[in-house]
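Hi Prof. W.,

I finally got the Hydroxyethylthiazole kinase prediction working! I wasn't sure whether to trim anything, so I left the full sequence exactly as given:
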Amino acid sequence: MQSKTTSGAMLEAMREKPPLVHCITNYVAMNIAANVLLASGASPAMVHAAEEAGEFAGIASALTVNIGTLSTQWLDGMRAAAKAAASAGKPWVLDPVAHYATAFRRQAVADLLALKPTIIRGNASEIIALAGGESRGQGVDSRDPVEQAEDSARRLAERQQAIVAVTGAVDFVTDGARAVRIKGGSVLMPQVTALGCSLTCLAGAFAATAPEDLFGATVAALAIFAVAGEDAALGAAGPGSFAWRFLDALAALDGEALDARARVSIA
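And this is what came out:
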């Protein structure tokens, strides 16, 4: 399989053949996540029931799992879907939202990590804690800067044999050996609920498009978010107008502009 080589090439390939992305995400994120995928060129499906999640994961091009609004029934669906995705050789992305907050969440994430996600995306506090360190996170909020999570991300990537993405003011992506930083975005992004959750779904879309280059696919997802965030902030008066401008900015970006403007550097 030929590599798509650049973030822009991956974006164009995704729009040419939109992947079906199975998103098990939270109640807060469903609408914005679906709209982010549609604006970027992918096809979202929000399927979480245990009775069908496993079967659907075998049909979809990629799976994304977000534990934001966790319940026993949803967790059963997550496990079934992750097992099916792994069995079918489909990439799947884990978003361990506030996994350190309760015993239920800690056990849920331990179960999901055992099913070998191909990509793990979280904020700095989540990644530090997931690697076994002490974070200052409170609920879904990160109290730690991304740079403090970089070593933790490398260790976690090596331990899990996965791509790890830490998102924040400057994003960080590593597979344990390689690492890059992605600059861009806007200070308004954390003020719009579930954008991070939506980014997890978009990472799944790019992974489905370029399964032969999961590191590059993860970088591409973060890069388009960073560039679109910059564009959306230009005319935004606040988080409300930023939110719809962000969707428009995602839809307006093409591969050539993404490659020209993405600020990705080796870490």
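The beta strands are 20-24, 43-45, 62-66, 92-95, 119-123, 163-167, 171-174, 179-183, 263-266. Does that look reasonable to you?

Thanks,
D.
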